[in-house]
Amino acid sequence: MCQLLGMNCATPTDITFSFTGFAARGGVTDHHADGWGIAFFEDKACRLFIDHQSAATSPIAELVKSYPIKSKNVIAHIRKATQGRIELENCHPFQRELWGRHWIFAHNGDLKDYQPFLSGVYQPVGTTDSELAFCDIMQGLRKRFPGSQPPLNELFHTLEEITRSITRHGVFNYMLSNGQALFAHCSTRLHYIVRQWPFQAAHLIDSDMTIDFAQYTTEADRVSVIATAPLTDNETWTSFAPGELILFEAGQPTLKTVVPIPDEVRLKNAQNSACL
Amino acid sequence: MCQLLGMNCATPTDITFSFTGFAARGGVTDHHADGWGIAFFEDKACRLFIDHQSAATSPIAELVKSYPIKSKNVIAHIRKATQGRIELENCHPFQRELWGRHWIFAHNGDLKDYQPFLSGVYQPVGTTDSELAFCDIMQGLRKRFPGSQPPLNELFHTLEEITRSITRHGVFNYMLSNGQALFAHCSTRLHYIVRQWPFQAAHLIDSDMTIDFAQYTTEADRVSVIATAPLTDNETWTSFAPGELILFEAGQPTLKTVVPIPDEVRLKNAQNSACL
């Protein structure tokens, strides 16, 4: 399938360290080489880079690694195609506008027999189940709050309801952000770590690289990194529970809930996860 | 104000030659240094690069110049801020989805007393008159064709009507593309050239660079380049008439019309154009 990487921070932070380890899984330390993408929010603006080359060899990935873009919300994805051809329009993250804000979405999983009714306000451009789910989520949020964006806690509970309706179709690990906060949902596999004062050194699993965050940070910094599999081997990452949906704000989890997964779906997901 | 660059081709073509000359106007040969952006369509997919640095010095512009992305439809923009702060969310081109396709828009001009009624399906993220006009256009096209995309000629005539309603607010040179075709409208200043077999050499105005297209092309190639001001000094560029709207398909103009500009607007535009 694919792998996800997200970052939510209290102050604008560059993701080059985590991205270096993550990008290595796109063809060097792992086989997710069917395209990749990364989205950086800078206030309300969003920069989205996608490429159908592998993240390990793409010139655009090289740029991202060498040009530190500071952001409070980042979502990245490396793809091993399951549904949808290896085409640029099928590369995650996907982007849409809602309530005068850009929204970014990336998915790791596989949805079966999933044919949501889309009224037309959001339509997929590519052929993935993932972009279909994103359109379904955007449509659901807009329908519940047609005028303007509600407070994040209300948004969280509506997202919980929409996620419940989608998660019964299969593996649905995802990340979603509007630049203010990051929502992460796990159906099979997702981990996070909160780094805060006093910061320490971290060593990548996928590349022999160590960074001592203490040298680059202040007490005001706080960073949550969310990834399919832990990126460092000398820190303790927290595993999401199956069905868990977490809202990350200012670098830390602020709301958590568990979206029930029907038993038969959980069983199928466990079988599918073997190949993650 | 700003400058625009567009390319529409019969076969996927790289724009690095034209972009090199154009980007020099973002801080070297001209003063449009308040951000820049470029969008490349690759079939239905779209890659959009934006940066608030000047195009002359941006590392992302360097990547675009050195990594030849082949595309049939490209729109680029360099900005000299008039309305809206120098923020990333105000960098053109802008992107939205309509009928399951990405749409890209960039504008050179200045719209006065322009407050269209937006129902909410498209809302600006930034604070420019340009993104507001793009939302107005997207909403107008969707309202006229709520189900799916009509043939390009029908789209052209609806765009003509929408343009008429906006152009009375001031200078409205723009480019719009959905990846299939490129629509270009001139209210004060826009030029184009069609390059086709037998191709010849071209020399940039803004950089001492010559390319002999004959070495890189076949009879199947045909390229229209559209720009605020001609980019080369040894070719004949065609000037758009004030109000002219042209549809470019497969590298050539296929439909043309003139959207009338009220006399009082034309007079004001001429005064504004002095600072273009």
What does this protein look like?
2 copies of one chain form a homodimer. The first copy, chain A, is α+β, with helices and mostly antiparallel strands. Chain A has one domain (2-273): 4-Layer Sandwich (Glutamine Phosphoribosylpyrophosphate, subunit 1, domain 1). The first copy, chain A, has helices spanning 16-24, 59-66, 129-144, 152-167, 263-273, and strands at 2-14, 36-42, 45-51, 70-79, 94-98, 101-111, 170-177, 182-185, 191-196, 201-203, 210-212, 222-227, 238-239, 244-249, 252-258. In chain A, strands 3-2-4-1-12-9-13 form a 7-stranded antiparallel sheet, covered by helices on one side. In chain A, strand 14 (244-249) and strand 15 (252-258) form a beta hairpin. Chain A is globular and about 50 Å long. The mean pLDDT of chain A is 93. The interface between A and B is medium-sized, with 33 and 33 residues.
Low-confidence stretches of chain A: none
Order of strands across the widest beta sheet of chain A?
Answer: 3-2-4-1-12-9-13
Query: Could you name the CATH topology of chain A?
Result: Glutamine Phosphoribosylpyrophosphate, subunit 1, domain 1
Structural class call of chain A reads alpha+beta
Order of H and E elements of chain A: EHEEHEEEHHEEEEEEEEEH
Q: Give the beta-strand count of chain A.
A: 15
Hey, roughly how much beta strand do the residues of chain A contain?
A: 35-45%
Percentage of residues assigned to helices of chain A: 10-25%
What CATH architecture of chain A would you give?
A: 4-Layer Sandwich
Indicate the CATH class of chain A: Alpha Beta
The interface involving the most residues is between:
A-B, 33 and 33 residues
The coarse overall form of chain A would be: globular
> Span from first to last CA of chain A?
6 Å
Describe the biggest sheet of chain A? 7 strands, antiparallel
> Domains counted in the coordinates of chain A: how many?
1
Q: Radius of gyration of chain A from the CA trace?
A: 17 Å
Task: State the CATH superfamily name of chain A.
Answer: Aminohydrolase, N-terminal nucleophile (Ntn) domain
Write down the overall mean pLDDT of chain A: 93
Pfam families (chains A, B): GATase_4
InterPro entries (chains A, B): EgtC-like, GATase_2_dom, Ntn_hydrolases_N
Keywords (chains A, B): Glutamine amidotransferase, Transferase
GO molecular function, one term (chains A, B): transferase activity
